[in-house]
Amino acid sequence: MAQVPQTLDALAVRTWCGLALRALGRAREEIDAINVYPVADGDTGTNLYLTVESAATAVEAVFAGYGTGTEEPSLADAARAMAHGALIGARGNSGTILAQLLRGMAQVLAGGEAGEASHCDGAGLRRALRHAADSARRAVAHPVEGTVLTVAAAAAAAAEEMEGDCGAVARAAYEGAGLALAQTPDRLAVLRRAGVVDAGGRGLVTVLGALVEACTGEAVNEITRARETVRESAAAVAEAHARVEAGAGACADGAEDDGPAYEVIYLLEAGDEAVARLRARLDALGDSLVVVGGDGLWNVHVHVDDAGAAVEAGVEAGRPYRIRITHFGAGDVHTGGERPPRERAQRAVVAVVPGEGLAGLYGEAGATTVLARPGEPPASGELVQAVRRAHAREVVLLPNDAELRHTAAAAAEQARAEGIRVALIPTRSAVQGIAALAVHEPERRFDEDVVQMTSAAGATRYAEVIVAERQSWTSAGICQAGDVLGLIDGDVAVIGPDLTATAETLLDRMLRAGGELVTLVVGDEAPESVAAHLETHVRESYLAVDTLVYRGGRQGSPLLIGVE
């Protein structure tokens, strides 16, 4: 019986993302352990995992959008979603490069000769792998051999030598990448001294192994020769990190001197010409510069001494957001000299917040924050990373969104497995988180502190004012596009034409059951006068009730209300 040629379709892309995520989850700690280039900060495996997690989430969302109907997403739908998810979720140097590799593949799978075809054959996969390797190399300001770029190029070259279906091409790419990975110490001195292979390349081989399994249904023997190299060098890893801490680290261009102090990453909305100017400016400011993306959305990664200048350059180029600045400080190995490890705090609070204004408020109160933009909820890996960043023995986690409860629970379990004591308080709104944070006392016993915070959050009713995007049925009746909706505890309670009037009606309904304190979080979309109007209304109508007003920034909804 003749074998059916193996092709790549939307379902295979979905399967690939899922398999890659699980494989990176298994390999994450091992990859982190061998991370000595370009910065020996031990997070390459974690960054790759978070990047693929974002890609997988985006693909799952596309499939969920089709529901249980007879139609399914096209290959183009799935490939574009994978690329976009990786782009917005890319972390670190290697994660950013992986995002560009996936974007390069998607450009072939979703466009050009592939068009809107339902599947891709072996020839198409060969073209996709080649385009991916070439576009990733172009995205790096100063490509270095012996890195993930070398491994990607070897994968593409091996694929081009293979005639056959997608399964055969994927396996050739995987094997070619594995051979190149094993040779990375011969091409990069810092790897050779440490006795390890390139961590980013190691991660890419894992992703390609998942592609083989997605195309063939057969699991590969996880990185045969390359894995042996990693295992044989396990004892050398600790020694390598010790040498790097003593000053043997390399900066991004391979020179052995002190590197920049900060890693700066942000998403950027800008045109091609502005990004070209940005590349030149950032290249002059620092190193490890990688700019990936296109079609108006970019992910910018650079290591610099002046983080403010790197962000300012982004502002001049367009609109930067999701800005993350990491200091290569105590506990992070980047510059020369020995530093004592940063001591863990006893307790910390990690909170998800919907806007920059609230991030500032929570930050001033001592919380470690994770920004959740509209339509871009944080993944569990991002929450785990925030828990680690808090660097405490005990952590209180505030998801501040009912839909994030399961994500936060998964993050809490992973953090507990790493030896961190984590308590998850099921806050469903940022105003409940504010109430919990207000009674937080780090000096109290952990259990008592958690009880008090949980009690404060539970005693806070929450509401939200939004604008309807389309006609729909609600618990308060039919709304039209443009109507203002007032939601209490997640259910629509008021429908009105005016935001201020609807908010006043909503507030009155909440205060009928009593209350001592009203919290208003005003977004950028709200009228300037709404906060003053509601403050006056509460003062004149409810004599024993106080009001606090905060600016939430771009938080996705014009107004959040809490009543304690």
Q: In whole angstroms, how far apart are the ends?
A: 71 Å
Largest beta sheet: strand ordering: 15-14-11-18-16-17
- State the helicity in percent bands: 40-55%
Strand-residue fraction? 15-25%
Q: Which blocks of ≥5 consecutive residues have pLDDT under 50? A: 223-257, 329-341
Give me the Rg, rounded.
Answer: 25 Å
Q: What average pLDDT do the residues reach?
A: 83
Please summarize the sheet with the most strands: 6 strands, mixed
Task: Describe it.
There is one protein chain. This protein has helices at residues 10-33, 44-65, 75-89, 92-110, 122-139, 148-160, 166-182, 184-187, 189-194, 199-216, 224-232, 234-248, 272-285, 307-317, 356-364, 380-390, 405-417, 430-438, 446-458, 499-511, 530-541, and strands spanning 8-9, 119-120, 262-269, 286-294, 297-304, 319-327, 345-353, 368-371, 392-398, 421-424, 461-467, 472-474, 477-479, 484-488, 491-496, 517-523, 546-553, 559-563. It has 21 helices and 18 strands. The strands form five sheets. Strands 15-14-11-18-16-17 form a six-stranded mixed sheet, with helices on both faces. The chain is globular, with a radius of gyration of 25 Å. Helix 1 runs antiparallel to helix 2 and helix 5 (122-139) runs parallel beside helix 7.
